[in-house]
Amino acid sequence: MDSCSTDESCSALSPAASQRKPAAAAGRVRCDGVTFTVTEGGEVAEVVRGAAAPRVLGSESFFDASTGTRHHFVDVQGQAEAMLFLVSVREDQRRIIAIRRF
């Protein structure tokens, strides 16, 4: 597992390698060239350069009641390959707290 600070982009060691990125309290978090945000409705969205609004990503999710965190599995098409991320969102704060790439 490879981790990085909240100020830098994650980079995979191999396509199968997983990594975790702790997220800052800011509204946007970048990992492996993808910028994520959370909508007012609590959905995970991708911030696309030049777009008027973030693009909501379809996801499967589950809620961890003990931490108040919803974990979203999202697929994102990168320039070279499709990527699967687990994006963890604190529902009470509507902010990303962690991102893990598989």
Question: What would you say this structure looks like, in words?
Answer:
Residues 1-12 have a biased composition (Polar residues). Residues 1-20 are annotated as: Disordered. With 102 residues, the chain is mainly beta. It has one domain (2-101). It has strands spanning 2-3, 19-22, 28-31, 34-38, 44-47, 55-56, 59-64, 69-77, 82-90, 95-101. The strands form two sheets. A six-stranded mixed beta sheet has the order 1-2-10-9-8-7, with no helix packed on it. Residues 1-25 have low confidence and may be disordered.
Number of helical segments with 4 or more residues: 0
Shape estimate? globular
Please state the CA-atom Rg, rounded to the nearest Å: 13 Å
Spans where pLDDT lies below 50 across 5 or more residues: 1-25
Structural class assignment: mainly beta
Strands, count: 10
Q: Tell me roughly what share of residues is in helical segments.
A: under 10%
Distance between the termini: 9 Å
Estimated share of beta-strand residues: over 45%
pLDDT averaged residue by residue: 79
Give the neighbour order of strands across the main sheet. Answer: 1-2-10-9-8-7
Order of secondary-structure elements: EEEEEEEEEE
Tally of structural domains: 1
Largest sheet features: 6 strands, mixed
